[in-house]
Amino acid sequence: MNRWHLFFFVILIGGGSWLWFSRVPLAAQTITHTAQPAIGYPAPDFTLKTLDGQTFTLSAQRGTPVILNFWATWCGPCQNEMPAMQATATRYAGKALVIGVDQAEAAPVVRKFVDQLQVSYPIPLDTDQKVAHSYNVGGLPTTFFIDSDGVIRHMWLGEMNRITLAEAVAKIVP
Q: Which residues span the domain enclosing 96?
């Protein structure tokens, strides 16, 4: 081994040791996540009027897991998954809350559709799609699974059936 190899080895070990011992201790690091539509981050808060004229605020649901589904009456996959969403709302009543955020449709159109399918869970109306924009919803249906602390634990883009829905709900309902 020539002396350049030895010099390089000493620099490598010494530099690595210096980096290791001069790092900020984990206990002193402050990691705060700002709300954003990503797994492991707090869900962006919003307030919307529901189809029934009530006010729905996401942050007011803390303590209860939330299945947040973005949909529209004209969306075929949304229509297909609606019975599974209703079954989930019924099955997990008191343990989780299904919320169906309708996208930019008139209340009478939504009311007719919801009544036809006998949907009983809250339907906030995102008439200007500001909430969908804050969640980066690019296609319908899009579903976010939010735990009782308000943190997104799973996302699903596209139609869900009862099995995929149950698997995702298991990630947020103990």
A: 47-169
